[in-house]
Write a structure and sequence with these properties.
Function: May act as a substrate-specific adapter of an E3 ubiquitin-protein ligase complex (CUL3-RBX1-BTB) which mediates the ubiquitination and subsequent proteasomal degradation of target proteins.
Pathway: Protein modification; protein ubiquitination
Protein name: BTB/POZ domain-containing protein FBL11 isoform X9
InterPro entries: BACK, BTB/POZ_dom, Leu-rich_rpt_Cys-con_subtyp, LRR_dom_sf, SKP1/BTB/POZ_sf
Strand order of the largest sheet: 5-6-7-8-10-11-12-13-14-15
Number of helices: 29
Shape: elongated
Pfam families: BACK (PF07707), BTB (PF00651)
Radius of gyration: 34 Å
């Protein structure tokens, strides 16, 4: 019977789910509900029934749904009926009704497709708008907390949009994938991303990746897993190559591009990348933009978007100030001739020989601001002028918090001061360089000379942080240094007590400190730093003067510290700094300190470090009693040097169970180890050291190793006497991306000279000793030229084909690129000639001697020591 008011006219919707099986928790009975109290519906209770009837306002159904509009107001027989049957997924239909009656919906990636299908079928425009609004908000959000769509759901949504020819859905799927690509590539479902979606994503202007390497790695993985599927599809080979064409091969790290040359599918692209990198390295910084003429520069733009959080340029020696500046400019300006001129002028001003101009004029270039960027890594960017980089960071990355600039000799303490002054929010800094191979307390120096400086030194005067300040840095950097929580200065032998004393005044928030190899620091200085920085939980001080004073500072309660070395150990302090330490590495300190830790101090230290997770006591005065006195139960890493703990069975069990093992070192281990230990795949292994444990290794065994450890970047073999010169080719073909090679006492590996190893173009560290007397006289110069990332070379005169080696010029940097240290040893063997470099010490007894050349940030130091280094 019709009501007197249209608003009160109801229709009965009889709802069933045709796909729903009757389960133990589903009732056969019916339930009747009404849209008048729709906001209070109890979904779990309603959905416990197989069928339910809904009293719904007829007019509201007609107004909000084209389906019901045609059904209830058209010529259909149901238009006169007050009962309509609905067969649909019940929870979805209930949500459709809630939307039609203005109730809020909880849209998720799981129910997006069912709701979209229902909205299309029932013609509910309001629901379609809500779904589009939700998807747009999620896909465009910068808030990582709103990452609400899982990749498998996104793939289903993409396929749904494809089936329904919905361009809106497809565009937002590609946009979401592009903005969150770093998250996407780590998903287990990444290999299931459809080709068209992936291609649209990587062409999207908002594609956000930490580096070109990350994008390349992801695409290589996807192509590897989809090769068979692609071959069986209608796609042509040229269409597949569209994916690889999106890689900006000139911006790949050299080690990464070199490593991919062994991959059959990608070797051509890798070779093209290596050649491009070398071309960029040959042109001068200011001349690089001229060398490109009027060509499109988009392939040189570092990928930065408003969603970027990290910029990783590590291992890219080809990156110049021009490339960095170009990447920070609006894309619409990057091709204008006037802008090219501005870039050249800016870079030229920033690179004057006297270093007098370090700033970019405020209005010279319209640089963009990327406020989401918090981390930058420029390690190994040899052609990147640091002052230019810091200026760019200060203008374009206002929220920068982490800076890693490892293996850059020209990054000095004054550069650090400028960084924290220009980028005051920075809290983590890493300026690691290679440790000086000469630690005076560990070697006997026969002779030592120092050349004139190879890099112009800044005047010996207080550092002026900006033209607007008239005072020196100690009075203005305090607030900025106070933000530093993690400081890594590993290998910085030029850091002295005065530098650290200044840091300790202001770095009150310091939690992590790495001073490994800072041999110029005294024990007293380190102790004072520890005493001031009471929040420290991680300390790395291997090969420093860390000793009794420093241990006393760690073990004494912070509120009652005594400065006297005569203070007695033995009283437990629960509020001491040692009680909160999580990481302590102090290996080798007994050689460097006149106040080296004794047994009593180590015993006391270990008794208080109950929270330690990582402990290195290599080459200390450690005794069993001290180690037994360790009170912690959280230890994950312990280094006490010598090993006994190894057989095939043990290694096989370890490799089988530790599938994520990245570093394996077997050195001077007792036990029975055979090729069986390495007959298993180790897909994650990156570093392998086998020293005096595999004397049986042949070339065939080495081939097997390259097949089972495909991702190695560091290799050390010692005592593999059955290897011959063919092993060079096996190594360079199997692991062309190696950055470190140590080969010693390995048969006749270099008897016919060195050639194939030059194919490992990303090498940074190379040691070749006692492998056969075929190493060319000009090898060091040749290696420095062909291996631009090479920092360390270690050779033996035993292997010199002409009895000696030519050395780089003291003051000419052009013939040594990034070379930092050269070590040439002379052993007791009769076949080892004296060599002209040892002529001055021939009158002395014929002990083993090593010539060490070290280029630091100031000059070249030549030293001859008795020991073999």
């Amino acid at each position: 019977m019709a009501s007197s008011s249209d608003d009160d006219e109801f229709v009965i919707l009889v709802c069933t789910d045709p796909n729903n099986q009757i389960g133990a928790d589903i009732s056969n009975e019916e339930i009747v509900i009404s849209t008048t109290d729709i906001s209070h519906w109890d979904f779990p209770s309603i959905l416990s029934f197989q069928t339910f009837k809904i009293q719904a306002h007829r007019n509201r159904l007609i107004e909000e749904s084209s389906y019901f509009r045609g059904l209830l107001s058209g010529s259909f027989s149901e238009s006169c009926s007050d009962c309509i049957s609905i067969e649909w997924q019940l929870e979805t239909f209930l949500n459709v009704l809630r939307c039609m009656f203005r109730c809020p919906l909880d849209i998720t990636s799981r129910n997006f497709i069912p709701l979209f299908e229902a909205a299309l079928y029932f013609g509910v425009e309001m629901l379609l708008l809500q779904l589009k609004s939700w998807f747009s908000e999620v896909s465009l959000s910068k808030d990582p907390g709103l990452l609400k769509i899982q990749l498998d759901d996104l793939i289903r949504i993409w396929n749904f949009g494809l089936e329904h020819a919905n361009g809106f859905v497809q565009e937002l799927c590609a946009s979401y994938l592009a903005r969150n690509f770093m998250w996407t590539m780590s998903s287990n479902f990444f290999e299931d991303v459809p080709y068209d979606l992936l291609l649209l994503c990587i062409k999207h202007p908002h594609l956000t990746v930490d580096s070109e390497k990350h994008l390349s790695d992801a695409l290589f993985i996807w192509l590897d897993s989809n090769t068979k599927q692609l071959e069986g599809s209608s796609k042509t080979e040229n269409e597949f190559s569209d994916i690889l064409k999106q890689i900006r091969i000139s911006l790949l790290p050299l080690w990464f591009a070199s490593g991919k040359r062994s991959s059959g599918c990608f070797s051509e692209l890798a070779n093209e990348s290596v050649n491009s990198i070398f071309r960029l390295m040959k042109v001068t910084t200011t001349g690089s933009i001229n060398a490109l003429g009027d060509s499109d520069l988009s392939h040189l733009r570092i990928r930065l978007t408003e969603y970027s959080k990290r910029m990783d340029l590590s291992g890219c020696p080809q990156i110049t100030p021009m490339i960095l500046l170009l990447s920070l400019l609006p894309n619409t300006h990057s091709f204008a001739l006037a802008l090219r001129k501005s870039i050249k002028e800016a870079v030229s001003n920033l690179e004057q020989a006297d270093g007098s101009k370090y700033q970019i004029s405020q209005g010279l270039l319209p640089t963009l601001s990327f406020e989401a960027v918090q981390e930058v890594d420029i390690s190994g960017c040899l052609k990147l002028h640091l002052e230019v980089a810091i200026e760019c960071f200060s203008k374009s990355f206002p929220c920068l918090r982490k800076v890693k600039a490892a293996y850059l000799l020209n990054f000095r303490t004054t550069t650090l001061y400028k960084l924290v002054q220009k980028c005051p929010l920075v809290s983590e800094v890493d300026i690691t360089i290679d440790m000086n191979p000469l630690i005076s307390s560990q070697v006997s120096v026969i002779s030592s000379t120092s050349s004139s400086p190879v890099i112009p030194l800044a005047p010996n005067r207080p550092y002026i942080v900006d033209h607007s300040f008239s005072m020196t840095y100690p009075y203005h950097l305090g607030p900025s240094l106070a933000n530093i929580t993690k400081l890594t200065m590993e290998g910085r032998s030029d850091v002295c007590d005065s530098d650290v004393q200044y840091f300790s005044k202001f770095c009150v928030s310091l939690c992590y400190l790495n001073l490994k190899g800072c041999i110029s620091l005294t024990d007293v200085c380190i102790a004072n730093l520890i005493r001031r920085c009471t929040k420290l939980h991680s300390i790395l001080v291997c090969h420093t003067s860390f000793g009794m004073n420093s241990i006393l500072a760690l073990c004494t309660a912070s509120r009652s510290f005594s400065n006297s070395l005569t203070a007695k150990f033995g009283k437990m302090h629960l509020d001491s700094l040692a009680s909160n330490l999580q990481l302590l590495h102090m290996g080798g300190c007994k050689f460097c300190s006149s106040t080296a830790a004794d047994e009593a101090s180590l015993l006391e230290l270990l008794s208080q470090t109950q929270m330690l997770k990582s402990l290195c006591l290599r080459d200390t005065n450690l005794v069993d009693n001290a180690l037994c006195n360790f009170s912690g139960s959280l230890l994950e890493m312990l280094d006490v040097s010598n090993t006994m703990v190894i057989s095939d069975c043990t290694i096989i069990n370890m490799i089988t169970s530790l599938r994520q093992l990245r570093t394996l070192s077997l050195c001077y281990c007792l036990g029975d180890i055979s090729i069986s230990s390495f007959n298993l795949s180790m897909p994650s292994l990156r570093k392998l050291r086998l020293e005096r444990v595999t004397p049986w290794m042949t070339n065939n065994d080495l081939v097997l190793l390259t097949q089972n450890c495909t991702k190695l970047v560091e290799l050390a073999l010692l005592g593999c006497k059955l290897l011959n010169s063919d092993a060079q080719c096996i190594i360079s073909r199997g692991w062309p991306g190696l950055i470190s090679i140590h080969l010693e006492d390995c048969g006749e590996l270099t008897k016919k000279g060195i050639s194939s190893l030059f194919n490992c173009t990303a090498l940074e560290d190379l040691l070749l000793r006692h492998n056969g007397p075929g190493v060319q006289r000009n090898f060091i110069l040749d290696a420095a030229l062909k291996l631009p990332m090479l920092r360390q070379v270690s050779l033996d005169l035993c292997d010199a084909s002409e009895g000696d080696f030519d050395l780089p010029d003291d003051e000419d940097e052009s013939d040594r690129y990034s070379l930092r240290s050269v070590k040439i040893a002379r052993c007791k063997s009769g076949r080892c000639n004296a060599g002209s470099h040892f002529a001055e010490v021939l009158a002395k007894p014929a002990h083993r001697e090593t010539l060490v050349l070290v280029w630091n940030s100031r000059n070249l130091v030549r030293t001859v020591v008795k020991e073999r280094l």
